[in-house]
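Quick start: read one record
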Amino acid sequence: MKNNTLRVTCIAALFFMGVDVVAQKKDSALKERQIEEVVVIGYGTARKSDLTGAVATVSGNSLKQIPVSNVAEALTGKIAGVQITTTEGSPDAEISLKVRGGGSITQDSSPLIIVDGFPVSGMSEVSPSDIENITVLKDASSTAIYGSRGAYGVVLITTKGAKGGKISGNLNSFVGYKFLAKKIDVLSPYDYAKWQYEDALLLGNVNSYNQYFLPWNQIDQYKSYTPMDWQDRIYGNTGIVNSNDFAVRGGNDKTSFSLNFARYKDDGIMIGSGFKRDNITFNLKNKPKNNLDLSFTFRYSNTDIKGSGANEQKEFSNTDGRLRHSVGYSPIDIPALTTDDTDEAVAGYLTNPYIAVADNDRLQNRKTFTIQGGFGWTIIKNLKFQSNIGMDFYNYHDNRFYGRSTYYVKNKPLQAYQGLAALIMTNTENQSFRIANTLNYDFKELLGNDHSLKLMGGMEYNNFSSTVLTNTIHGFPKSFTFEDAVNLTSQGKWFSVDNQNLQDDRLLSFFSRLNYDFMNRYLLTATFRGDGSSKFNPEKRWGFFPSVAAAWKMSEESFLRDVSWIRLLKLRASYGQAGNNNIPTGQTIQMYSPFTTTWVNNVSNYWAPGNYMFNPDLKWETTVSQNAGLDYEFFNGRLTGAIDLYKNNTKDLLIAFPTPGTGYDAQFRNLGETQNKGLEVSLNFDAIKKKDYSLSLGFNISFNKNEILSLGGLDHHLWTSNWSSAVGYDYITNIGMPLGLMYGYQNAGRYEVSDFDLVNGVYKLKAGIADASAIVGAVRPGSMKLVDINGDGKVDANDRGVIGDANPKHTGGFTLNATVKNFDLTAVFNWSYGNQVYNANKIEFSTTPQSSPSGQYRNLDTFMADGIRWTNIDAGGNLVTDPGELAALNANTSMWSPYMPRYVFSDWAVEDGSFLRLNTVSLGYSLPADFVKTIGLTKLRLYVSGYNVWIWTKYSGMDPEVSTRRQTPLTPAVDYSGFPKSRQVVFGANLSF
């Protein structure tokens, strides 16, 4: 009797928390009660066993222990079909999130992100500790209910809401320490000086060496010099991370509340950097009558980002990149060459890394206020009306300083103010309004036990408005720092004040959904949504997005019902459409914008058509999705998982199409079609389930193949990542090929002495040896050698081709959770296999362009170390001209000479980016319950965690998970001057009372 009482009490509690408890038949004589997981879906919830679409969920408990500033990072490796890339190592780095490969060519392919029903621009403003669960909708059956915004998947974040009962509190606090994970190895002082001597001889100006360095006959003294590790000086700080979040919940049957406060602070590994975020969330629920439900939610987020941080995607020049100066600066202190005096640095050849940091200083602040209210009314039994209304206020303030060493102040201001510090202050204010009304009716009272029919209809209206105020100030006094410029703006010369009120983005939607269930075996879901967007002209304004999905619970059939080890076996199939209108407003009409100029006498500003040519014929981009899946639960739920096959075709792509020669940069057009198809497998196994110890394993793997089916009549199109203007086009889109193809030359090593005849003291290429001088400069023994693809005897732009692919063959992750007594252990791994990385750092730091100051005196990567690179000088410091002696001198070297006129992109710089990473490991200990009660708590757990603990990869760069030239999806996986990643160890405590 005691056991029965306990069981009924537990079931009642589960009903109170909103968790369905159902009876599952395995034979006609026995009904076993079990807990059914409830999953959040579009505008409602559903039992997991009743889902007909491809849906994945992650519990908030598995996220809050991961010490990251953006919750998207904590999802890494946990969900099949979701690829998450941390583009750089700074706390404010952009997190690339793609569901099933995305689909767009030039526009953002990120999924729609919704927090408690309200669309948001990203996850960075949500505290991981405040999350109850995250649901990812992956196929059109589940995303079509969101219509125009669901083409690339939907991420639903549910925060911890108000709960009735006794007031309880939770505190999670940790302190962490971050360390630079990896550096780029550079030449030693001796090797650096030796190369500077050879470079000066090749330039024909040995005095450019002698005026700074010890004479050649004393060069061995540099072997005893201690190198200045500039990467360590700039990025070698021990970054201290502090996180504290406190939550209190409680109430009674009528009113309940939840209050959560969280602060996350990261001092950063880079000097002058810092990140701080405060989150406050308040939820209130009230039930004034049995058929009325009221709710109120308030969310506040305040984020401060100090320092230059991640690379800007709307930069003025790549020369102000974060990392490049700390790698290329001299490893030895050389009077008159290395200096921390700005005047001398600007006039000299190298930019001191400290000056580069100070001259690119920045302070950003983001504030978000969200207010939501909900009203639920059960009109009659099984008929419920729900209305939700909310507003979101976003303010972003950015103070960007350009010191005297930066490209901006050397080129953009009026001539009189060039070389003087500048400040650009940008203030962005966004407002979002949303109202959604739904009506749900459950026909269960009318159809009997064998049939279940639920209908939902609704409407939604969203309005987004934005104002951007930009103040540009030039000509500050020479001595001004960032703080001086911000506090004393009147001391500069105001160049422009630009206040842009962008067109409102309005979206009106009507939608409906039908869920039908026959005998708990055959399931049908149908949805339809119509969206009207203000981004399109009236005749193209409306898009309509239907979907249908069916599922068959084979485990409920008579031929499987008696198979005791099968708890669930369900086949799913779906077909549907979802839309995308992800373009700026105002693209269908001629828009005029204010511009500033320093090139027209007595004219500083003017009005002109915008940079984009208008197109009145724009219409919806549409993704057609097909999915087939299998869900399974075996051995009483010990082994669970899903297998999905999918194909997504995106047509009428909204592409920013370049329009050279028109006076416009580009025009948005509907052209082209892409396809993503693939396989997803997930598996969870409770290997051991005992009272005092347990072991559970999780595994997921995803295969995705991307293909461009059409480019609107073009066979291909070339693009540039712009990390160096000398490289030119380095990406290509080809019909029948995936997005993200790297385009360049095939490397053939180097020219050897045997490739030449010496004629009158001049090296002449032998017949049959291709001449690459148009690309690598005048060829000589030791020059880089490229493959002549078309066989015309010379290497030129016509010999470029596809040399790399940023797309992985598969990605995935696996997790381990174990407990022994009061100890718990969690480990999370993730991997990517088959993708390639464009290592632009490798090109820059293996090349000394034959011009000063951009090439001479910079340090090099150890790819070009003495004994590896081609050399032209003998032990006496003399240039070797004799062919035999030169060949013998380089018999054991393998690389070409760094002495080149320009950077060249070849497949030598395309590397295997495959990796396996131990992303997170955590060891915790929960103090005994009896002891915890004596100190007035209900739970106390202590833990230590590591983040980015270990990585196995063949990639020679700092980290293979990188994408620094990410302004569009066209140029992924470029590794150039990024903010280095760190490793982190964390000590923390969880307590409840």
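The CA atoms of residues 401 and 423 lie 5 Å apart.
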